[in-house]
Amino acid sequence: MFNPRDIIETLANNVKQTASPFGIPKFMVNKWYKDINLPKEGEYLLLTGLMYQFTPFIEKSTQYLEKYEGTKMAGLLKYAKYVPSYISGIGLAMMTSRKEKKNAGQALKNIASLLKKSKVDFAYRPDLDNYSGILLYDMGDQKGFVAHAKKVAKKLQDAGIKKIITVDPHTAYALKELFPKYTGISFEVKSYFELLDLESKDCGIEVTLHDPCFFGRYLELSDVPRKVLTNLGISVSKIRNQGEFTSCCGGPAESISPSLSNEIMEKRAKELKEPGKPIIAYCPICLGNLKKSGANVEDLSTLLVRHI
Amino acid sequence: MSSVNLDFAEELKEYSEDTALECFNCGTCAAICPLVHDNFPRRMIRYVQIGARDKILENSDELWRCLHCGLCTHTCPREADPGEIILGLKRFVVANFRRS
Fold first, then answer.
1. Average confidence (pLDDT) over A283-287
2. Is A284 helix (H, G, I), strand (E, B) or coil?
3. Does A162 lie in the same domain as A256?
4. Which of A35, A232, B58, B59 is deepest in the core (most CB within 10 A)?
C-alpha cells in the first residue's frame, strides 16, 4: 500500500495545475470527436467528463504503481509533488501506446452514434467537456474537489447549459448529486442509456452485466440498461451480486494499493465468469479493471452498436 | 495508552453528518464489506463513538482501503451511513495532515 498522503497530494496538485488527475493537458487526452461530425447545439450537452479518455493512462500508471508497491521505491512518491504536473503528465502520455489511446475513444463514438440513432437532440462542445474532480472527492480532498467542481459548474452555467448527458457513473454521480450540494449549481442530468430508443430483430444472445456501484446503488439505475438490452432481444444472466447489491470491481483502490485492487477484482471476475456468457461493463474503470483479470468483457456501447 | 476526546464528535461535524451514534455495532457493515479486513469499517465507527481521535489518526491509512462501494451504507439497519462516516474521516485526516 502506498502512503495515502503522497497519492492524494500528487492527484490534488495535478488537478489544481492541469484540471486532470494525471497532469496530462486536455488537448492530449480528448481527441475522440475530431474525426466525426457532431452538432454544436442541441437540447442536451454530451459531457464525457474525460473518464473513458483517461483509461489508457490509468492502466499505464497502475503498471508502474504495481511494480513499486511494497518496495523502497514507493517512498519516493512523496517527491512527486515537486515535479510540475505538465512534465510528469506529458511523460505519462508519451509512455502510453497510441493504439490504446485511440481505442479509449471508441466507446464515446459508439455512444454518440447510439444517441443519434435514438434521435436525441444533443450537442458536443469540447471546450465545456471537463473532468468532474470526482477522484478528489473519493480521496477525501474536499477543498480541492469543491474548488475544481465550482470552476467546471460555472463554465457550464455561463454557457447556458441546462441539460446534460453523461457516459460514466462517476461523472453522473458528481454532476447529479455532488454539484448541486457543493457548488449550488444544478443541471438536469441523464445517463446516455436512459435516452436510448433502440430496436432490432431478436438477437437471441445472453450476456452477464456487471453493474458499477454508482449506477447500481448510488444512482439506482441498473434496471435501465437491462430494459435497453431486452428491447434488442438480449437476455441478461442472473448472478448473485447484481443491481443494488452489485460487487465492486476493485478499481477505486488501484492508486493506493494495486494488490488490494487485484484481490477484489479477481473475486468479482470469478462471479461474473460463472454463467459462462460474455461480460458487459458500463463504466470505464470497471471495464479496464475487469480486462486485467483476463475476462471476456466489453463496454455496453460496443455491444449495443453491434446489434442495431 | 490512548486518550478519549469528548469533543471529537463536535470536531467531526465539519467533515460529515453526525450519524455515528445511530450505530449499535451489529457488524453488518464489516460482514458485507468486500475488504473483509480487521472489522472494517465497524472498528473505525466505534472509535468515533468513544472519541478515540488518536486511534483514528494512528490507523488512518486503512481508511483509504475503503472502495467507497456503498454496500455498508445500503445495508446498515440503523441508517448510520458507515460509508459517509469513513469518507468524513478521510476528510478529517487530510485536513489534519495539511495542518501539520
1. 97
2. helix
3. no
4. A232
Examine residue B3 and state whether it is found in any structural domain, yes or no.
Answer: no
Which candidate, A298, A261, A262, places its Cα nearest to that of A282? A298
Sign of CA dihedral A149, A151, A152, A155: positive
Tally the domains of chain A: 2
Domain of residue A29, residue span: 4-194
Query: Domain check: are A261 and A242 in the same one?
Result: yes
Measure the CA–CA gap between A126 and A108, rounded to whole angstroms: 13
Nearest CB among B15, B68, B97 relative to A252 is that of B68
Residue B32 forms part of a structural domain: yes
CA distances from B4 to B17, B46, B92 (A): 21, 12, 17
One-letter identity of residue B93 = V
**Å between A115 CA and nearest CA of chain B:** 29
Between A3, A8, A217, which is nearest B70 by CB? Answer: A217
**Are A143 and A272 within one domain?**
no
| Residue A165 confidence (pLDDT) above 70 | yes
Rounded to the nearest angstrom, the minimum Cα separation between B4 and chain A is: 24
Task: Compute the half-sphere exposure of residue A71: CA atoms within 13 Å on the CB side of its CA.
Answer: 9
User: Which residue among B61, B67, B97 sits closest to A252, beta carbon to beta carbon?
Assistant: B67
Q: Answer yes or no: is B22 within a domain.
A: yes
- Structure confidence by residue, pLDDT tens digits, A79-104: 777 777 777 777 777 888 888 888 88
**Are residues A48 and A171 in contact, defined by beta-carbon separation less than 8 angstroms?**
yes
A231 and A265 both lie in a single domain: yes
pLDDT digits (tens, 9 = 90+) for A1-35: 889 999 999 999 999 999 999 999 999 999 999 99
For residue A212, is the peptide bond before it cis, meaning its omega torsion is within 30 degrees of 0?
A: no
Structural domains in chain B (count): 1
Contact A248 B69 (CB under 8 A): yes
Predicted confidence (pLDDT) per residue in B34-63, tens digit: 997 779 999 999 999 999 999 999 999 999
| In contact, A127 and A59? CB cutoff 8 Å | no
Nearest alpha-carbon partner for A42 in A128, A150, A109? A128
- The answer to whether residues A187 and A110 belong to one domain is yes
pLDDT computed for residue A91 by the predictor: 75
